[in-house]
Structures are given as C-alpha cells and as structure tokens.
Automatic annotation (TrEMBL):
<dbReference type="Pfam" id="PF01545">
    <property type="entry name" value="Cation_efflux"/>
</dbReference>
<protein>
    <recommendedName>
        <fullName>Cation efflux protein transmembrane domain-containing protein</fullName>
    </recommendedName>
</protein>
<keyword id="KW-0472">Membrane</keyword>
<keyword id="KW-0813">Transport</keyword>
<feature type="transmembrane region" description="Helical">
    <location>
        <begin position="155"/>
        <end position="174"/>
    </location>
</feature>
<dbReference type="GO" id="GO:0006882">
    <property type="term" value="P:intracellular zinc ion homeostasis"/>
</dbReference>
<keyword id="KW-1133">Transmembrane helix</keyword>
<feature type="transmembrane region" description="Helical">
    <location>
        <begin position="186"/>
        <end position="207"/>
    </location>
</feature>
<feature type="transmembrane region" description="Helical">
    <location>
        <begin position="16"/>
        <end position="34"/>
    </location>
</feature>
<dbReference type="GO" id="GO:0015341">
    <property type="term" value="F:zinc efflux antiporter activity"/>
</dbReference>
<dbReference type="InterPro" id="IPR058533">
    <property type="entry name" value="Cation_efflux_TM"/>
</dbReference>
<feature type="transmembrane region" description="Helical">
    <location>
        <begin position="40"/>
        <end position="61"/>
    </location>
</feature>
<dbReference type="GO" id="GO:0005886">
    <property type="term" value="C:plasma membrane"/>
</dbReference>
<feature type="transmembrane region" description="Helical">
    <location>
        <begin position="113"/>
        <end position="134"/>
    </location>
</feature>
<dbReference type="InterPro" id="IPR050291">
    <property type="entry name" value="CDF_Transporter"/>
</dbReference>
<keyword id="KW-0812">Transmembrane</keyword>
<feature type="domain" description="Cation efflux protein transmembrane">
    <location>
        <begin position="14"/>
        <end position="210"/>
    </location>
</feature>
Amino acid sequence: MSEPNATAHEQRALKYSVWGNLSLGVLGIVFAALCHSDAVLLDGVFSLINFGVALLSLKVARMVMRPTDDRYPFGYAYYEPILNLGKGLIIATVCLLGLYSSAGALFHGGREIAAGIAFFYAISASGIGLFITLTLRAFAKKCHSPIVDVDAKNWLLDTVLSGIIAVALLGVYLLENSRFRDWAPYADPVAVMVLCLIFMPVPIRIIRENWAQVLGQNVDAKLLKDAREAMANYLADKSCESHQVRAIRAGRFVYLHVFLIVAKDATWPSSVEEQDACRRAICEQLKPTYPYLVIDVMFTHDKVWADQDLLS
C-alpha cells in the first residue's frame, strides 16, 4: 500500500476509535451512575481516557509523516513511541487506581449495585468493543501503523474487561437470589481487583517496548536478522571485505545503517550508479516487511569509520 493510502487508512481508523471511545465512555459513566458499580465506572473511565489519547494519536499520526526540517533533521518518528509509552502509563495508572478503590471497598463491607442494569451495559459494551477491535486490527494490518495496533490492543483490553464484568455481574445476580446473598456486595470490588491484576501485564509490555525505542535500543531481533541476511545475500558475489549493520525502530519507522568495507583495489563498486544499485536492492528486499524504511549505506576503504562511535 502506498504511503498516502496508508495514511488515509490510519486517519480513518483513529477517527473510528475516537468516536467509539467517546460513545462507550459516556455510556459507561451514565450506567455507573444508575447501577452504582465501580466495575462499570472503571470500564467507562478507561474508554474516556482512551478517547483523549486517541485525539492525541490523530495529531501524532500526522506529525510523524511530516518531512524533515532544520528543527527536526531526523524527522518526528520518536513522537510515536512516546505517545504509545504514555498510553501504557495511563492504562497502568487506571489499573492501579481500580485496584486501590476496590481494596478499600472490600474492607468497608463491599458495594451494593443494581446488577441487572450493569449487566445490560456490560453485554452491550462487549459487543461494540469486539466489533471495533476487529475493525482496528484490519486497519493496522493494512497501514502498518503501531499507533493503530496499540489502539486495537487497548480496545481488546476494554472488550475483555467488559466481558468479564458481564460474567461477574451475572454472578452478582445469582448470588442476590440465593442463600449466599450476603456475599453479593463483595462481588463487584472483587471483580475489579481480579481484572486489574489480570491486565496489568498489558500496559507493562507496552511501556517496556516503547521505552526501549525512546532510548534507541534495538528491541526487534528479527529486524536486525532480516537486515543482515539481506546484506549477505546481495554481497554474495561482490568483492566486499566485510560489512556492519545497525538497525533500530522508532514507532513504524525502521532506520538501517550499513557500512561496507571494500579493498582499495576492489572492482566493485566501480561507480556511484553501482552504489545506488546496492541501496535500491536492499530497499526492495526489505520494504515489503518494513514499509517505513530509512536506509543509509556507506562505502569505505578504512574500517575505522565503520567501528567509530560517539566516544571515538
């Protein structure tokens, strides 16, 4: 898919996510007020927070596609992992607050809720969330957008959250109509605590991956392996003494830095055209897997240029 088409699909997906989060957020707050359930409130707040983040995602998605300038000579790509890092921190914070609130409720006799109203909300939210999750996943595959991919993960989290809330609320209803009715007030806070503990690994993984990208670490072993294989395949019949490959990812963008050490009496490359042909061949091999590829290929006789670092 061409970059303009990919960008259009990405913007469409993010707008879809914005309105979906706003709708479910408002719905969750209204139903939480009606049924007095912290589990429903958590679900609604989660959607409203995602609504705010989705608005930021729209801006960042446009920003990272801007051309380089004097202020940002290497582009705006690092805004993407910064945004995703923020998303992970927000999700983790919501989970911790939900855990704290529910623990407090348990120590104060639980919480009486209108289980029937809350159950209707949870079932409706699960169905809507599942539909939007599948739609965003399809968009993410089409446009290769990490922002949309993280949004799809957020929606999956919210959908499963709503589904488990529905099961918990069904349990509350059954408890209220059984000889164990005295335990019913504890079901809502226990459900929130279990949900928070189950889903905490999701934001932790998002935080870890995107923090590493912000620091400039290569967290994608496959990327480096693919880049080295592409170079080795191209150089199989070339007179190249050695080569070094460095690769990092910043959001959707992949930066590939290649040094080729050639002997002074080497017959290849004999011209700038042959150097450009090398760059073109590497791009063509890697672009299908890494569509947002930025590549630098440097030719040198002296290995010291390939070995240098910032402290050299």
